[in-house]
C-alpha cells in the first residue's frame, strides 16, 4: 500500500467512518478549515486514525486524533508514514 | 410535579414508530381497528432461535429520515427515537424550537436494552479481528443514554436532559420526569422511549425470561387475561411526546392534546407477579392522588397486560383494590396484544393511544383476545365509542417496576 494518504482517501474515510460527505476538491480548497465545520467530530477523527493504523499496520502519533484541520492531519500522518517507510 | 403544582403540563406533540404504523396517525388507525401485526421474526440471524413471533417495525427507512452523520454513530433504537422526536416536534409546531431559545427545551428518554445490534457488530469485530477494529462510536451508541443525547444534539437543545433506566415501566417514569422538569421551569421537554430488541444478541438476552412467549402461531402467542395466556411477545418501536408547560402552550395557541395529571411508581421485585398486585395498586392510588382524581373519574384503563396468568390476575386484582367497585366496571384495553411489547416503548405507545382515544371518543380493542378469565371489562373485537375525559395507563417491567400515569383531556381555557 502506498504510504501517502491523499485528500481523496481522507474524503472517503470521512464518509466511511463518520458519514460526512465531502467532495475531495472541496476538501482541497478548504484544507485549513476545521474538521468540525465539515461535520466531523472527535470520535469520527479517532475512527479515521484507527482505520489508517489498521491499513498501514503501524501506530500513528496520539496527536493525530487531535488535529484540527485536514492539512494538519495529513501533514502529521504522512510525515509519520513516510519516515522509515 | 410537586415542585410547582400550579405549573401544569400539556402534551402538545406525538411521534410514533411502531410495528403497526410509522406515523402517529397510521398507528392510531391500526390500533382502533384492532389490527394485529404480530408475525414470524424475519430479522437476519434470528431464525434458529426459539423465539419465533414478534412485532417487527418493517419498512422504516432510516436513511430517508436521519442524516448520515447521525446514522453511522447510532443504533436502530436511536434511529426510531430520533424519527419519533422529529415527528413529535413537528406535530407540536416546534421543529425550530432550538432557534429561539435552546435552553428552554430538554430531552428525557427511557431505555431497557440499549443498542444491541450496533453493540453486537462491534463486539464481533473485537473478537473476530481485534480491539483495533472496534469503532469509536461503540463508546456511545449502545448505551441507554444514546437516544437522549442524539435527540438533543441533532435538534440543538441545551435544556435539562435525562435518561430513565427503570425497567419497562420506566417509559411512564420518563413522562413523569419530563412533567417534573417542566414544573421546575423548563418550557418544553421531549420525552419518550423506543427500543430495537430484535437482533440476534438482543434476542438471546431475552431468552432467559420465563415470561417470554415462544408460541409459534402469531394469533395465539400473546393473549393476556385469557386461560390461554402463555407469556408476552416482544416488539420494536416506541413513541416520543412533546411535554410542555400548559400556560405556554395556550399562549402560543398550540393544540393541547392532553394533560399529564398524575404519576406514581413502585418496585416489587423481579418476576414476583403476586406482589405486583400490591405494587400496581399503590402506584394507581399515588397517581390518582397526584391528579386529584377519584377512582370513578377514570374512563378507560390501558392495561399492562403481561400475558402471564399470575401477572394478569395481579393486575385485575390491583384494579379492584385501587378503584374499588369501579375497577370491575371501567373499560380496560390492551392494544399492545396486536403489536407486542417494545419494553420501555410499550407504555409510551399506550400513552399515545390513550391521548388519541380521548380525542376521538373511542376505546380501541385488544387484538387476539376473546374469552376473558378475570373480572374486568376488557374491550375486545371492535373499538367501543365512549366519552373519555381521563385515562389511566399502567405498566410493569420484568425486573419488578410498576407505574401508573393519569392523563386528562384538556377541557380548554374556558373550563378552568
From TrEMBL, chain A:
Residues 4-81 form the Carrier domain. Keywords: Phosphopantetheine, Phosphoprotein. The lineage of its organism: Bacteria, Bacillati, Actinomycetota, Actinomycetes, Kitasatosporales. The keyword Phosphoprotein applies. InterPro entries: ACP-like_sf (IPR036736), PP-bd_ACP (IPR009081), Ppantetheine_attach_site (IPR006162). This is Acyl carrier protein. It comes from the Bacteria. Pfam families: PP-binding. Signal peptide: none annotated. Coiled coil: none annotated. It comes from Streptomyces coeruleofuscus.
From TrEMBL, chain B:
SUPFAM superfamilies: Thiolase-like. InterPro entries: Beta-ketoacyl_synthase (IPR000794), Ketoacyl_synth_C (IPR014031), Ketoacyl_synth_N (IPR014030), PKS_Beta-ketoAc_synthase_dom (IPR020841), Thiolase-like (IPR016039). One of its GO terms (biological process) is fatty acid biosynthetic process. Keywords: Acyltransferase, Transferase. Pfam families: ketoacyl-synt, Ketoacyl-synt_C. Residues 6-409 form the Ketosynthase family 3 (KS3) domain. One of its GO terms (molecular function) is 3-oxoacyl-[acyl-carrier-protein] synthase activity. Belongs to the thiolase-like superfamily. Beta-ketoacyl-ACP synthases family. This is Ketosynthase chain-length factor. It comes from Streptomyces coeruleorubidus.
Amino acid at each position: 500500500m502506498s504510504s501517502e494518504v491523499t485528500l481523496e482517501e481522507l474524503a472517503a474515510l470521512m464518509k466511511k467512518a463518520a458519514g460526512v460527505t465531502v467532495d475531495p476538491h472541496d476538501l482541497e480548497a478548504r484544507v485549513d478549515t476545521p474538521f468540525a465545520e465539515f461535520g466531523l467530530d472527535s470520535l469520527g477523527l479517532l475512527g479515521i486514525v484507527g482505520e489508517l493504523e489498521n491499513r498501514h499496520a503501524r501506530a500513528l502519533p496520539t496527536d493525530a486524533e487531535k488535529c484540527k484541520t485536514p492539512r494538519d492531519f495529513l501533514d502529521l500522518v504522512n510525515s509519520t508514514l513516510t519516515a522509515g517507510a | 410535579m410537586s415542585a410547582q403544582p400550579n405549573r401544569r403540563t400539556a402534551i402538545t406533540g406525538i411521534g410514533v414508530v411502531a410495528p403497526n404504523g410509522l406515523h402517529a396517525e397510521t398507528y392510531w388507525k391500526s390500533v382502533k381497528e384492532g389490527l394485529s401485526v404480530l408475525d414470524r421474526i424475519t430479522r437476519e440471524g434470528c431464525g434458529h432461535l426459539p423465539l419465533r413471533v414478534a412485532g417487527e417495525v418493517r419498512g422504516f427507512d432510516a436513511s430517508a429520515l436521519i442524516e448520515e452523520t447521525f446514522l453511522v454513530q447510532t443504533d436502530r433504537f436511536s434511529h426510531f427515537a430520533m424519527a419519533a422526536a422529529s415527528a413529535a416536534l413537528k406535530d407540536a409546531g416546534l421543529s425550530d424550537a432550538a432557534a429561539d431559545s435552546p435552553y428552554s427545551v430538554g430531552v428525557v428518554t427511557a431505555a431497557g436494552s440499549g443498542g444491541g445490534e450496533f453493540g453486537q457488530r462491534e463486539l464481533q469485530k473485537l473478537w473476530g479481528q481485534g480491539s483495533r477494529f472496534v469503532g469509536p462510536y461503540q463508546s456511545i451508541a449502545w448505551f441507554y443514554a444514546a437516544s437522549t443525547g442524539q435527540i438533543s444534539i441533532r435538534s440543538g437543545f441545551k435544556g435539562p436532559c435525562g435518561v430513565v433506566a427503570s425497567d419497562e415501566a420506566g417509559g411512564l417514569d420518563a413522562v413523569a420526569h419530563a412533567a417534573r422538569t417542566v414544573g421546575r421551569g423548563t418550557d418544553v421537554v421531549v420525552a419518550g422511549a423506543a427500543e430495537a430488541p430484535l437482533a440476534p444478541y438482543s434476542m438471546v438476552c431475552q431468552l432467559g425470561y420465563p415470561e417470554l412467549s415462544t408460541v409459534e402461531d402469531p394469533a395465539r402467542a400473546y393473549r393476556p387475561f385469557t386461560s390461554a395466556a402463555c407469556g408476552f411477545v416482544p416488539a420494536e418501536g416506541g413513541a416520543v411526546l412533546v411535554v410542555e408547560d400548559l400556560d405556554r402552550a395556550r399562549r402560543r395557541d398550540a393544540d393541547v392534546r392532553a394533560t399529564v395529571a398524575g404519576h406514581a411508581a413502585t418496585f416489587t421485585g423481579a418476576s414476583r407477579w403476586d406482589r405486583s398486585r400490591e405494587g400496581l395498586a399503590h402506584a394507581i392510588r399515588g397517581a390518582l392522588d397526584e391528579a386529584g382524581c377519584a377512582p370513578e373519574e377514570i374512563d378507560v384503563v390501558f392495561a399492562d397486560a403481561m400475558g402471564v396468568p399470575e401477572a394478569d390476575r395481579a393486575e385485575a386484582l390491583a384494579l379492584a383494590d385501587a378503584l374499588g367497585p369501579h375497577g370491575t366496571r371501567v373499560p380496560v384495553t390492551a392494544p399492545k396484544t396486536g403489536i407486542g411489547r417494545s419494553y420501555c416503548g410499550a407504555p409510551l405507545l399506550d400513552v399515545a393511544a390513550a391521548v388519541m382515544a380521548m380525542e376521538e371518543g373511542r376505546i380501541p380493542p385488544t387484538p387476539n383476545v376473546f374469552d376473558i378469565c378475570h373480572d374486568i371489562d376488557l374491550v375486545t373485537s371492535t373499538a367501543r365509542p365512549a366519552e373519555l375525559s381521563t385515562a389511566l395507563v399502567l405498566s410493569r417491567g420484568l425486573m419488578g417496576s410498576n407505574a401508573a400515569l393519569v392523563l386528562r383531556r384538556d377541557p380548554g381555557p374556558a373550563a378552568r
